[in-house]
């Protein structure tokens, strides 16, 4: 009989609950999923949510049923749950769960009983509100305004909490509930994020917020590492018993292990009574734990949209991106930049190009050839291609092509089209990648590489709210870039992104269908081993040393010598963005 140890990672996302298991060699050994719409159809959700205009919510009871169901699948598969040493996981970010005053006593039953199911013990009576706002909700415009006014605008808000006020962030959501549903708010004993809701169920008692995920609330003062009094008072300045501070259960947790799994799961599914629970965290925070990312490493997700995640020790907030405390690396932050226009914008250019050449519209061959064709000179061209309104920069839908003076970087004229449609293929990928490069730049350390080009380094460039001399951008390169997501299959797109971003220690690509849950598995394993003094390595070192590197493909033939070739496009990009509204 093998004596393997296992670690579980949950992924409680919008449409499904997944549970992944790894062994002590970090190899995935089992996975089960419950799809909400299909398998829990009696909740009548569409893609996991209820939509009423701008209001988007999820039924909390559905998550309880899903947890029983996913573990039942493990049980039926005869997976040895008694050898699971620790559990952690990932949950959709920003959502909030409202516990009633009976919650504690109802949860307590999970430490004694197991005959019935979770819904029976922790059913509707445990909640003062049966639904949780979902991250897609857009109903809090008024509350976001109140939040930003309270601290003095979007920049101040970003400095304080790592992000400007966003509809989906939990603080504005709680404020809305306190204003529109005062009785519900009054009856609420405690408020969880989805992450500590799941942790709570696993350990069988109310537990506080996980600190990294608490940064997705617009309430947490990241530098002071405590809730902002100003913002808490905006929600609820009463000095009565049940103040917002008490509802949020005090200061968020920084612990690696929060407790052991409760009796319900031990008796019902055969977990070991010593199985440890490490706090669940938000999905993006779990994603960075799924890869061996260290300071100055960047993850570029080329999905429908483009998301850039990076690890930094610089607290340089901006209203255009998000900073969260890193869930496993003390003194570090996770930066997150979300672009709306990624794959769909590239697809549009590909289709136009193919139709000019009577090629099949969904073939990437012509597009790819154009992207890498260095015989075509596009040195004085720049374009932005935003078929959808963009988040970074924050502008309306627009497509704009310009010709600029290569000596000064100043824009000479706007053009309807470039010399050839192939130039659009090259220019869209270059400008998308360049936008990533200039936006991650303030979060990177100096890399001691100098450009040979003669540029006026004192020229002031402006991106979003940041204004600084060009020189600030000429010396900042990430160490490693990791590419994931649908378009990372595309050799040409990845090569161009890699050239423009210019990582000094390599570019990698991998398929990551399970990244959130896998990040949870790795966090559970490292937390368990570190907490029980079996290892001393910090999380990044542990993962770098133990990571199954064979799953990773090195994009090695990127000529990084060409990195500084894109330096001369920084000023024109800044100038072009200034003209957008
Ligand atoms: P999501 O972000 O919705 O999870 P994916 O990560 O699966 O999506 O990425 C989907 C996108 O990947 C599609 O919009 C498609 O344009 C793009 N894509 C898939 N294969 C390729 C390819 N070979 N070349 C370029 N783009 C691709
Ligand atoms: C991040 C965000 C989404 C959700 C998806 O800010 O809103 O990524 O976390 O679950």
From TrEMBL:
Domain of life: Eukaryota
GO biological process terms held by the UniProt record: D-xylose metabolic process; xylulose metabolic process
ATP-binding in keyword set: yes
Residue intervals passing through the bilayer: none
EC category: transferase
Positions of the Carbohydrate kinase FGGY C-terminal domain: 299-527
Keyword Transferase: yes
Catalytic reaction equation(s): D-xylulose + ATP = D-xylulose 5-phosphate + ADP + H(+)
Keywords assigned by UniProt, alphabetized: ATP-binding, Carbohydrate metabolism, Kinase, Nucleotide-binding, Transferase, Xylose metabolism
Domain Carbohydrate kinase FGGY N-terminal span(s) in chain numbering: 134-287
GO cellular component, one term: cytosol
Family: Belongs to the FGGY kinase family.
Role description: Highly specific D-xylulose kinase which participates in the catabolism of xylose. Xylose is a major component of hemicelluloses such as xylan. Most fungi utilize D-xylose via three enzymatic reactions, xylose reductase (XR), xylitol dehydrogenase (XDH), and xylulokinase, to form xylulose 5-phosphate, which enters pentose phosphate pathway.
Entry protein name: Xylulose kinase
Taxonomic source organism: Saccharomyces mikatae IFO 1815
Lineage, opening ranks: Eukaryota, Fungi, Dikarya, Ascomycota, Saccharomycotina
Encoding gene per record: SMKI16G0660
